[in-house]
Write a structure and sequence with these properties.
This protein is of the alpha/beta class. The chain has a single domain, classed as NAD(P)-binding Rossmann-like Domain (Rossmann fold). It contains 11 helices and 7 strands. It has a 7-stranded parallel beta sheet, sandwiched between helices. Helix 1 links the parallel strand 1 and strand 2. Helix 1 packs across helix 10 and helix 4 packs parallel to helix 6. The mean pLDDT is 96. The protein binds nicotinamide-adenine-dinucleotide (NAD). The site of nicotinamide-adenine-dinucleotide has 27 residues, from helix 1, strand 5 and helix 8.
């Protein structure tokens, strides 16, 4: 159902790999709500993933870019303004990857080269994106920039490993850049802290199935799906939230404010 919440807006969606990706759902809903967009992902993901299929479906262009490369990001913003015909109104950073998680390195046995990569891909890329966009004056006044994060930034979850550190940094970058971008250009910057979601990146996290099940029982509304996360992103891109900035917004069915639910108690008693 479309309410044309993004009618006339131009956006860039980073990170749609396949139809499980949160960014995939955001791209679909943004177009459904009247926006015109470009998509971006790594050259490898564009070759091996399904980003091109999404771009055909939505009649959009894909600009391949490694989000850790300032030059690549300059291309994404410059080309997107050309393709879409003006300044950009919204950007989604939906990017995360930890080589330590992928290679099964424990938190007390991290490879520091991998650790640098985790932070660069999953957090610094957000800063690079905004620094590039600001230098190019690529974002329209009132524009909205979002990155996706996880509550492991605030609390420790087994298996989340160095991604927890990356998410803490990502959220801090959101606040710090949110101040500067709001002050200078009236652009808002927020992070959305999403429930565990069964995507390619999500399923890479150790013990994800157990955590997904636990969070489902620990959240009064249950886990938030990728689709409902996309709905929240659309609202955050719309003019309905034009005074919201520098926030870390929990989109998790209530998980972040729960201590213990009856569902978890009953599960525990049954298993004893
Ligand atoms: N799945 C979850 O449980 C969950 C929960 C909270 C937050 N998040 C966050 O949501 C975001 C999207 O992840 P997802 O769950 O949709 O998984 P996903 O695997 O579909 O998306 C991750 C994307 O990051 C891209 N990427 C990796 N390295 C890159 C690079 N160098 N440059 C550009 N793009 C790169 C991948 O190609 C992929 O498209 C991530 O930031 C993730 O940490 C996910």
């Amino acid at each position: 159902m479309s309410n044309n919440l993004l009618k006339g807006k131009r956006g860039i969606v980073f990170g749609a790999l396949n139809d499980k990706s949160i960014a995939w759902k955001v791209a679909e809903k943004a177009v459904e709500q009247g926006a015109i967009i470009t998509l971006s992902n790594t050259p490898m993901a564009v070759r091996m993933g399904e980003t091109n299929a999404l771009s055909e479906k939505l009649n959009t262009k894909v600009i391949a870019a490694d989000a850790t490369s300032v030059e690549d990001l300059e291309q994404v913003f410059t080309q997107s303004m050309e393709i879409l015909g003006g300044k950009i109104d919204f950007v989604l950073h939906s990017i995360g990857m930890s080589p330590n998680v992928r290679k099964g390195k424990p938190y007390d046995g991290l490879d520091y080269g991998f650790y640098d990569k985790t932070l660069d891909v999953s957090a610094l890329s957000f800063h690079k994106m905004m620094q590039v966009a600001k230098k190019l004056d690529a974002i329209a006044e009132g524009g909205s920039i979002l990155a996706l994060t996880h509550i492991a930034a605030q609390r420790t979850f087994t298996g989340y490993n160095d991604m927890a550190d990356a998410k803490a940094l990502l959220e801090s970058i959101g606040r710090s850049f949110g101040y500067v971008y709001g002050r200078d250009k009236k652009v808002r910057v927020n992070t959305i802290s999403q429930s565990p979601t069964l995507t390619t990146a999500g399923q890479g996290i150790g013990g994800m199935d157990a955590f997904f099940d636990f969070a489902e029982k620990m959240s009064p509304l249950g886990n938030a799906s990728a689709e409902s996360c996309a709905d929240y992103c659309i609202v955050m891109f719309s003019d309905l939230t034009r005074m919201v900035t520098m926030q870390n917004l929990f989109h998790d069915g209530g998980f972040s404010n729960m201590g213990l639910t009856q569902a978890v108690v009953e599960d525990y008693i049954q298993k004893k």
